[in-house]
Amino acid sequence: MFWMISNRTLPSKPKSPTPDKLLAEPGPTTYWLNASTDAANPAQWGLVSAADFKNQLVAAAGKFPNIGQDGNFEDQKQIALLVHGYNNSWEDEADCYKRVCTSLFSGDASLGGCVMYDWPSEGAVTDYLPDLAHVRKCAEPLADILSELYDWMLGQQQAAQQNPARACRAKTSIVAHSMGNYLVELAMQVVWVRKNKPLLLSLINQLLMVGADVDNDLFKSGEATGLSDGDAIANLTYRLTALYSGLGLVLGLSAGLKHFGKRRLGRSGIDRTYPVPDNVWDIDCSRIFLANKGKISNYPRGVHSAYFELDETYALMRQLLRGVDRTVLIHDRLAPSPLTLAAA
């Protein structure tokens, strides 16, 4: 089963709506299911109610194995939310979602289930600023979804105290790409404030910020209040990993359009001139891209889209989503050590 939540506007009075006909304008949240084997075929998607979507997703997660108190939590299945970036038509999103599902959420090695979050990108390289405006409008709707998840998980936690058999069988994760990370940043800040700024509450188990189009000093505490969007994310997430590379050219432009003079997290990694929460780290993927120069030249956005094209980056994402400890990833050479990078 494939899953999609969309904040694109439905065309007026469609006879049989398909997601490829949704408009590039923010609109009410809609929910879609696809029971076929082709996530990229718009004809296979059907519009459903919010209640039906939730019930079917909960039922699917309820079929995951129960690892129990003594199980290996790296093997626990998960429901992940995939949030696309700037300059993506619905067709672009669906193709990426299909690759992610094939690589990480299918077959005997499936990590669980994946939901595509469809915000209304214009799908044109010249529409960076309109896309940015749409992201800001979609922050509240995404926050509503995450807030409902927060409340549902809290209820399940309380139920499990009475009956351990009712414990959640899935952890929750987010994989966000490019400008989609800015949307996640804004939405999680809203959720954190709504829930009275809880400390170290793992609403999201693993957050992967892939080629993130956000300021690389995101985790600097706010000068006026002592709190920042980064504080919100760090307190709502068990672990955050930023995948970045200085080889990508796409993010160079946004540094001037969005926050002049400030580096992008997805291009420069975390700004460590400020204290960074211990559950936040980054991985330079440049060595993977340098080893795949020939393939990357054929990708429409070069390095910026290569994260979702290469087997090596999928292997890294798989272990990150499983929750494998960073020291193990460094030892197994899936992630470079800070000392290796410093000497490079």
Give the rounded overall mean pLDDT: 87
Helix content range of the residues, please? 25-40%
State the order of secondary-structure elements, H for helix, E for strand.
Answer: EEEHEHEHEHEHEHHEHHHHHH
Terminal Cα span? 44 Å
Shape: globular
List the uncertain runs: 339-344
Oligomer: single chain
Supply the helix-strand structural class.
alpha/beta
The CATH topology comes to Rossmann fold
Q: Report Rg.
A: 19 Å
CATH class: Alpha Beta
Strands, helices and their partners?
Elements: E1 2-9, E2 23-34, E3 46-48, H1 50-62, E4 78-83, H2 90-104, E5 112-118, H3 128-162, E6 171-177, H4 180-194, E7 204-210, H5 229-236, E8 237-244, H6 250-258, H7 265-268, E9 280-284, H8 286-290, H9 293-296, H10 303-306, H11 311-322, H12 326-331, H13 338-343
Parallel strand pairs: 1-5, 4-5, 4-6, 6-7, 7-8, 8-9
Antiparallel strand pairs: 1-2, 2-3
Could you characterize the architecture of this molecule?
40% of the residues lie in helices and 18% in strands. The chain is α/β, with parallel strands linked by helices. The chain has one domain: Rossmann fold (3-Layer(aba) Sandwich), CATH 3.40.50. Strands 3-2-1-5-4-6-7-8-9 form a nine-stranded mixed beta sheet, sandwiched between helices. 42% of the residues are buried.
